[in-house]
Every structure is written in C-alpha cells, then in structure tokens.
Design goal:
binds glycinamide ribonucleotide, 6 helices, alpha/beta, eight-stranded mixed sheet
Length: 196
C-alpha cells in the first residue's frame, strides 16, 4: 500500500472521509494525521479511527516558516509517507517544503480554481454573483492554490445563499471529490475528473 500523511488545522471532516475511504482494495492506507494546531478537532477523530497523530505547533517559530517546516517534515518522513494530502491545512508552505514533496502532495481548495485562490472563497463567489461554485483538488506546487488540477466538483449557487450555506453545500462535494481523486492518484491515474 501507498502510505498517506494527512495535514490538518481544524475539524478534519475531509481528513476523515479520506481515512474512511482507505480500506479494502484501496491502493493506499493512512500512516499519519499531522496538525499545526493541538486543538484541531480532527486529531481525536483520527486517533479514534486508529491512525497515528502528531502535532507541530507553528507558533513558537514566530513566522520563521523554514524552521517550522524543518520540524513539520520529521513526522512525515518518520511515518514513511509516499503521498501527502493537505486537508484544511491553513499554513502557507515554502518552495523548499513543496519541492520536497513535488508530484506527491495534494490539496483541496473550496473554489473552482483558478477562481478565488486564498481565503473567503464562498463570500467572494457570492459577491461576484456566480451561479456555479465548487471545490478543486490539485497537485501542490510552489504557487499558492496553483498546480495541475486533479478534480473539480460543481454546485449551484442558490438565491438565498449565505457564505455558510454555500460552504456547507461545497463541503458535501469535497467529501465525495477528495476520496475519489486520492484513490485514482494512489493508483497512478492523474486524469482530471469533473463532478456535478
Ligand atoms: C475545507 O472546506 C477545505 O476545502 C478548506 O478548509 C475546510 C476544512 O474543513 N481549505 C482551505 O480553505 C485551504 N486554504 P475540514 O477540516 O472539515 O476538512
């Protein structure tokens, strides 16, 4: 099996759908859930599912990204990860870190990239009057929320949507898209998929 490390910062709902998907004839298994935030709700869920967890708090490094990443990389290497999945990991990574995992690191982003890189994607889609919104899984490169697309899922924007209702609709699709992409990626298939 390919070994998968999943990096989170928060609730970890995407992480759990990835963990739950990696059973049976799936070509990968979870080897580590790693967070920059000791309070991330996903850590307990991962541990309860029997997955090894680790925390590397970014705050003591006071903005020194390279020093933070020098620690962050250790549990990933120790776990023998073949693939790294960012799943709601809210720290920007340096070129050096990304290069180390180039071609084997994925990210999920809550917009139809190349639209709305960065934060507040749902509010921005609403403000723009978009009728369609969604989420993307892509290979991570040195440019934030850039890199080859592996899959996208679309949702309609409804007249009464708030950023919260739209986020919820998108998140439901994230939970379908990310496991779908990871399964194919772990099997060596990088053909982009479009759902919805
Ligand atoms: C997800 O919507 C994910 O796409 C987004 O954070 C949420 C994490 O939820 N990621 C980003 O915004 C990355 N910049 P989760 O912890 O429940 O998976």
């Amino acid at each position: 099996h390919k070994q998968v490390a999943i990096l989170i910062s928060g609730g970890g709902s995407n992480m759990m759908t990835l963990v739950d998907s990696m059973t049976g004839d799936h070509p990968a298994r979870p080897c580590l859930v790693l967070s920059n935030n000791a309070d991330a709700g996903g850590l307990k869920k991962a541990a309860a599912a029997g997955v090894a967890t680790a925390v590397v708090d970014h705050r003591p490094f006071k903005g020194d990204r390279q020093a933070f990443e020098a620690e962050l990389v250790k549990p990933i290497l120790d776990a023998g990860a073949d693939i790294v999945c960012l799943a709601g990991f809210m720290r920007v990574l340096t070129v050096d870190f990304v290069t180390q995992f180039q071609g084997r690191m994925l990210n999920i982003h809550p917009s139809l990239l190349p639209k709305y890189t960065g934060l507040h994607t749902h509010a921005r889609a609403l403000a723009a009057g978009d009728s369609t919104h969604g989420c993307s899984v892509h290979e991570v490169t040195a440019v934030l929320d850039d890199g080859p697309l592996l899959g996208q899922a679309r949702v309609p924007v409804l007249p009464d949507d708030t950023p919260e209702t739209l986020a919820e609709r998108v998140l439901t699709q994230e939970h379908i898209l990310y496991p779908d992409v990871l399964r194919r990626y772990a099997a060596g298939d990088r053909t982009p998929v479009l759902l919805g």
